[in-house]
Specification:
By secondary structure, this protein is an alpha+beta fold. The chain is built from 3 helices and 8 strands, in the order αββββββββαα.
């Protein structure tokens, strides 16, 4: 099954490289609370001018795709961190950033702009309260009945 998911992601990336917009289901909980795995989808597009704060699909450490937020760009090196991660980061090169997530589609089919003023503000606050993430995520998971698989 994992191989099939990588094939789906690779096809989504190929389509975005050709200028298509692709809606892709998300697995995992590394982007909580902004993107909920096994429930939400993201709309992907070809990345252009990448900047800190962008949510991207990247091929990291030469072995897997992740959907994480860019936290640093230094030359051609990119550091990524999932919003639901406590301190773990991944690294890749700019050329390994394969797609930009522009919107989240929730379980009710509503589309939410990842870069609206409200979402940018909450993402920035979420970044600064990293020491409290463990507790806030635990509360969020309990109140939203989210379990790790």
């Amino acid at each position: 099954m994992l191989k099939n998911y990588y094939e789906i992601v690779a096809e989504a990336i190929r389509l975005t490289e050709n200028g298509e917009s692709v809606t892709l289901p998300v697995n995992g909980h590394s982007m909580l609370p902004f993107v909920v795995g096994w429930r939400d989808c993201v709309i992907l597009q070809k990345p252009t001018q990448l900047k800190v704060g962008d949510v991207v699909v990247a091929w990291v450490e030469g072995r897997r795709y992740v959907l994480h937020r860019i936290i640093r760009i230094e030359g051609d090196r990119v550091t990524l961190m999932g919003d639901g991660n406590l301190k773990e980061t991944e690294h890749c090169r700019l050329e390994d950033v394969k797609a930009l997530a522009t919107h989240v589609v929730d379980v009710k089919g509503r589309t939410h702009d990842l870069y609206s003023k409200w979402r940018r503000c909450t993402a920035k606050v979420w970044w600064y309260i990293r020491p409290m993430r463990r507790y806030l995520l635990a509360i969020y998971r309990r109140t939203n009945n989210i379990h790790y698989i």
